[in-house]
Every structure is written in C-alpha cells, then in structure tokens.
C-alpha cells in the first residue's frame, strides 16, 4: 500500500473520531441531564453554595463563602499552602473598583 | 481533478519517505507535539466542563446569603436579624442556615455538616456523602463517633448514604439534625451559621442587599450572581500558577518546533537543491514542505485531542488527579458531563497546526529560490 494511502486513512480515522467525540458528548449530555437536574434539586433543598471539589481547607471547600485573601488571615506573611490554591484565579470581587481615586 | 489528486499523493509519498529518513528526530517531535496539545486540550475540556456544570447546578443556590463578620471573620449570626430583614420590602422569605466543618482526627479529613431545612432528620441519625463513607469505611446502619465542643463523644447512626451520582456536590457532606448539630458545636439556639434570603423580584436583589447592609452593618451579603462568578474564575485556564508552569513547557516546545521547522539542516538543503536540479519547481518544493508541516502537526493535533477527550471524560482526568487532590484526604470521585466547546478546539487548532505549518514553508521557500548549484556545493 502507498504511504500516502496509509496517511490519508489515518487522518480519515481521526476525523471520524473527531465526529464521534462530538456525537458522544451530545449523547452523554442528554443522558446526564437528569443527573444534573438531580444535583440542582439537591443544591436547592440543602441550600448549597459550592461544589465539593477540594476539602483541604474551609476557604478552598466553600470558595464562594471564603473571605477575601483568606490564606493571609493565618498570619501576615502566610502564603497559599494548598496545591489546589494554585489552580484558582483571583475571586472577581478583588478586582472590583469601588471608586476612582483620581 | 484526478491528476491534481494524484500529484498531491505523489508529493505526500515523497514527503513521508523524506520524514522517515529522519525517523528519530521526527518521531520525537511528534511525541512532544502530541503531549503538549494533549495537556492543553485536557485542561480546556476539564475546566470548561466543570465551569458549565457549576453554572447549572449553582443556579439553584440561595439567592442571597447574609453572614455576620466580627473582626474580619465569619461569626454566628443572631436569629433576631431574621425579623429585621423580613421588614424589608421585596423579601419573600428569610431563614437561618446551620452548617459547619468537622475535622475528623481518625482519617484527617474535613467534613461539611449541614442541617437540611426541608428534610429534618430525627436526632441521633445522619446521612453521609460517599466520600465520608469511603474515608471512614462506614455504610448505612453503622455508627460514627464525633467529639463534641465540650469533649463529650456523640454517637450518630448512619440512616442513609447520598447517591454516588451527586458526589460533585455532596461527597464530604454529613446531613445532621438541628439538635445534634447544636449539641456537637455548642451553637446557641438563638444563633445560626448564616441567613438565607429570598427576594420576590430578582431585579431587586442588589437593592435588598444594599438595604440589609445599611440595616445590619456588621454583615456581608453574598449574592447568587457572585457565587456563579466565583466559579467562572475557578479553574480559569488562563490564570493560576498551573498555566504559568505549563507556559514554560509550551515555550520550550515552541522553540524546539520553530528550530525544527524554520532552520533547515544541510541535509534538507541538499535535498531541496537536488530536487530543483532534477526539475522540481519552487512551488513543488513549497508544496512538499507544506505537506510535511501538515503531516506532523495535523497527525499530532488530532491524536492529542482524541486522547485528551478520553482522558477527561472516560478516565476522570487521572493525570491531573494528584494536583486536584492536593492534600485532601477526602476527594470526590465524579465523572464530568462532557460539555465540549467547539470554538476552543478550533482555537487550539489555529494556535498549534497553523503556526507550525507556516513556519516550515518560509525557510523552504528561501532555500528553493536559491540556485541549486550553490546549495549542493
């Protein structure tokens, strides 16, 4: 078989897989919507405010409820000490400008 | 048309033979290329799916949470505040919420204890999340011991475990009765952890929040909108230390790929010279180099994206697990709903395939326009 045929077959298989990715994603989304609805119901019933992504510390467990600069509350020179902290961007409230100073 | 296709196939045949002559170097390049795109695509899939799921689930979060702050820290809130908030026009309901953390010295895990307002448990019984069940090796019918605020040991029976399907929100939860919660933490009957406020007209939420802030200056208000925005910022793949570290690897790859693609070696220059000498046009040489770039980048890109999808949605992002788990003893085991953003895949394509392919053409064009005799010497 010609090398170009092998390459074109490889690319064709990948393209088919690409379409399968989107088809699978669409199928799973439809199938999992019930589960998402169940989680929404639980969040409503239990009045939950956060996802359970990290459980290392309170400010990481309940991100939306954490105080601004929480790690620094432990002592003034304290830096972030949990690995998951490195994954998070700064909370949007930090960037909020209350008033222009000049 | 048929002759055009045949011409392209002949060039691809020749290009593949040329690539195979430098097998080691090209295979290594493709491996690094695939790995870099795989990590980038995995991060993109993971962060998009988690943010999308968070935005949907947290649509049902409380409209407004009112917390009392004392000396900059979250403090218990007196239930008398409820009556004051109720007087504000537009408020539909106000109720106290009881929740807190319990550090379990047996496992070293932190649990979240919640008193479920709508589903009051009978005293002495609890409902636990799957993470708690795994960490403590307990099932329905077992008892768990807790050390109360005064040092007393409280034994609570597990009535139910929460379904593993909802681990993303409930893995570390322990649902407990009002009486047991107060006994465990010594929370006075006159206080709650915070207050949940419902507002009739969603447009009035900021106004109501402002009125509460004026009425009760020692409180802060967290709106549902802010909660959603927090999760928009979470796992932002353009921020955080992770992308900073990864950008180092990415830059190294760019230098490697640029060097490989743009700097033609003497062997490659000689090859172009010979091709020109035997009658190849400059356009043919450029076409060959275009195919070379396409073969390397397209093959690596497509394989990397497929592997990234499998990694995130079939194998629960195992590569990221050590970073995501961090120091946590209790970690939720969840499968993400595959929310895939096609525009992100397209952006990744244009950031990886196109620059590499273009980078291969320019030096080839330069070499192909020089006299073959001078190249071969």
Summarize the topology.
The complex is a heterodimer of chains A (102) and B (377).
Chain A: H1 3-45, H2 58-61, H3 92-95
Chain B: H1 2-21, H2 23-57, E1 64-70, E2 73-75, E3 77-78, H3 80-86, E4 91-97, E5 99-104, E6 109-114, E7 125-128, H4 130-136, E8 143-147, E9 153-161, H5 167-170, E10 173-176, H6 178-185, E11 191-192, E12 194-199, H7 205-215, E13 219-223, H8 224-233, H9 240-262, H10 266-277, H11 282-313, H12 321-325, H13 342-369, H14 372-376
Helix pairs in contact in B: 1-11, 2-9, 2-11, 2-13, 9-13, 11-13
Low-confidence stretches of chain B: none
Give the structural class of chain A.
mainly alpha
Question: Using DSSP, what is the number of strands of chain A?
Answer: 0
Strand order of the largest sheet of chain B: 5-6-10-7-9-8
- Tell me the major beta sheet of chain B: 6 strands, mixed
- String of helices and strands of chain B: HHEEEHEEEEHEEHEHEEHEHHHHHHH
Percent range of helical residues of chain B: 40-55%
Radius of gyration of chain B: 31 Å
Anisotropy-based shape of chain A? elongated
Summarize the structure.
With 102 residues, chain A is mainly α.
Index terms:
heterodimer; A: 102 residues; mainly alpha; 3 helices; 0% strand; elongated; B: 377 residues; alpha+beta; Barwin-like endoglucanases; 2 domains; five-stranded antiparallel sheet; 55% helix; 18% strand
What can you see in these coordinates?
The complex is a heterodimer of chains A (102) and B (377). Chain A has 102 residues and is mainly alpha-helical. Chain A is 50% helix and 0% strand. Chain A has helices at 3-45, 58-61, 92-95. Residues 74-78 of chain A have low confidence and may be disordered. Chain B folds into two domains: 2-58 and 234-376, no CATH class; 62-233, Barwin-like endoglucanases (Beta Barrel). Chain B has helices at 2-21, 23-57, 80-86, 130-136, 167-170, 178-185, 205-215, 224-233, 240-262, 266-277, 282-313, 321-325, 342-369, 372-376; strands at residues 64-70, 73-75, 77-78, 91-97, 99-104, 109-114, 125-128, 143-147, 153-161, 173-176, 191-192, 194-199, 219-223. Chain B has a six-stranded mixed β-sheet. In chain B, helix 2 runs antiparallel to helix 9 (240-262), helix 2 (23-57) runs antiparallel to helix 13 (342-369) and helix 11 (282-313) runs antiparallel to helix 13 (342-369). The two termini of chain B are 38 Å apart.
């Amino acid at each position: 078989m010609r090398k170009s045929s092998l390459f074109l077959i490889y690319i064709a298989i990948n393209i088919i897989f690409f379409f399968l990715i989107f088809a699978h994603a669409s199928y799973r989304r439809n199938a999992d919507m019930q589960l998402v609805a169940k989680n929404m119901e639980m969040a409503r019933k239990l009045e939950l405010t956060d996802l359970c992504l990290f459980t290392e510390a309170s400010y990481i467990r309940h991100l939306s409820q954490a105080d601004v600069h929480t790690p620094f509350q432990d002592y003034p020179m304290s830096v972030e000490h949990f690995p998951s902290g490195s994954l998070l961007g700064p909370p949007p409230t930090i960037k909020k400008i209350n008033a222009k100073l000049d | 048309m048929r002759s055009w296709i045949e011409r392209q196939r002949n060039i691809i045949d020749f290009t593949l033979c040329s690539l195979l002559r430098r097998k080691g170097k090209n295979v290594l390049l493709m491996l690094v290329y695939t790995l870099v795109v795989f990590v980038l695509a995995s991060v993109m899939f993971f962060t998009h799916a988690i943010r999308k799921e968070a935005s949907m689930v947290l649509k049902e979060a409380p409209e407004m949470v009112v917390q009392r702050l004392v000396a900059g820290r979250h403090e218990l809130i007196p239930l008398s505040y409820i009556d004051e908030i109720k007087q504000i026009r537009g408020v539909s309901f106000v109720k106290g919420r009881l929740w807190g953390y319990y550090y379990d010295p047996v496992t070293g895990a932190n649990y979240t204890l919640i008193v479920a307002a709508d589903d009051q448990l009978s005293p002495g019984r609890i409902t636990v999340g799957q993470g708690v069940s795994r960490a403590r090796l307990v099932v329905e019918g077992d008892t768990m011991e807790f050390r109360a605020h005064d040092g007393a040991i409280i034994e609570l029976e597990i009535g139910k475990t929460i379904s593993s399907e909802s681990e993303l929100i409930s893995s570390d939860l322990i649902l407990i009765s009002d009486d047991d919660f107060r006994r465990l933490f010594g929370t006075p009957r006159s206080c709650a952890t915070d207050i949940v406020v419902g507002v009739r007209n969603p447009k009035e939420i900021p106004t109501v929040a402002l009125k509460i802030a004026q009425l009760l200056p020692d409180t802060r208000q967290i709106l549902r909108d802010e909660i959603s925005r927090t999760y928009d910022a979470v796992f932002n793949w353009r921020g955080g230390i992770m992308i900073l570290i990864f950008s180092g690897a990415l830059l190294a790859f760019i230098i490697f790929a640029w060097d490989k693609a743009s700097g033609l070696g003497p062997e490659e220059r000689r090859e172009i010279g010979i091709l020109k000498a035997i009658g190849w046009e400059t356009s043919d040489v450029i076409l060959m180099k275009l195919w070379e770039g396409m073969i390397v980048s397209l093959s690596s890109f497509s394989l990397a994206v497929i592997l990234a999808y499998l990694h995130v949605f079939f194998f629960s992002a195992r590569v990221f697990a050590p970073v995501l788990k961090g120091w946590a003893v209790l970690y939720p085991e969840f499968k993400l709903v595959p929310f895939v953003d096609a525009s992100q895949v397209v952006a990744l394509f244009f950031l990886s395939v196109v620059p590499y392919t273009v980078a291969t053409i320019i030096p080839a064009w330069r070499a192909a326009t020089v006299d073959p005799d001078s190249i071969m010497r």
